[in-house]
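cron nightly-structures :: item 1 of 1
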Amino acid sequence: MSGGRVQLGRRSSGWFSTWAAAAIVLAAACGGEGGSGDGAGPARSRRVVVFTPHGQEMLDEYEAAFEAAYPDIDVVGRFIPTGQILSQLRIDRASPKVDVWWGGTTAFFTQAKQEGLLEPYRPSWAEAVEPDFRDVDDAWYAQFIQAPAIIYNVHIYDPRDVPQTWEELLDPKWAGKIVIREPLHSGTVKTIFTGLIWAMGGPDRDTGPGYAFLKRLDAQTRAYLPDPQALYDRVARSPAGYISLWNVTDAIFQREANGYPFGFVIPRGPAPISLDPIAIVARGPNPAEARLFYEFVTSKEAGLRMARDHFRLLARRDIPPEAVPEILAAVKFEPLHVDLAEFDRLQVEWMRHWQDHIRSPEK
């Protein structure tokens, strides 16, 4: 599963012109008139404020693309971790300063909805996603799916030697060979841990088997690392042969775009997937522009480009597999079916128990 490097931020004039034409249609559908709404006309400066954890490269790329399609709208984008976005929305509750929250995990979006921080919006492509992939009240919609994986250094391990199931992580030969991103700061790891407790607990949600598994996994773990970069470097650069729990998208992207020697295995059985949503912030200062940006970055054209250049697994079901890169079409997994509201609620409780009663204090 190797491939050439991808040039980040590539933009063709054809892509821009196609989206510029589509933007006119979207502006009409979303109520935009090319002005500020006070009769000033298209020369009046407009803006949309976007917070995203997606990464600076992707933010820069789509900021430029949107501004090319809408020359009178300035995108004010900020690359911020998901948890910090929620904290900022809470601080600014009385006078919101952001319009669009683009990316993260559903637990944070669900919390924001419960606190009245999100504005319901039903996008033009609402019927193109499974009901499980959107909020029942249209507060958020999933744009991408994150599938869990065990990642490893291809220069050290043959894929057949890497654990093929979650249980194989507990084999004594992996003692001290596992490094994991700090779980309480990682939506990916929290979803994996919560999903394992859910799957092992059966319909009665018995936490005993899952807690016991995570206790043994903690004993196998060398360290919990502070950020993704530390994880990448430990797996890629250490001769000790560390493996980790992460997600398919990052494993592929870091290999193809940044040259990390990553392979991955999706463990057999139902996979605890993460959903990566987008939402409009309640009472944001630029609601019409927010809808335009939302539709622009979630369009089918944008999705295909994100799959091609950023290796995103798309939540939309109206894009045929042959339209996405072969490397993504080859990714196969069985999603773990959960009640998402209950899953997000239990995640808080279960991860608090993990922190207080399972995690080794010295790690």
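cron nightly-structures :: done
The longest strand covers residues 274-281.
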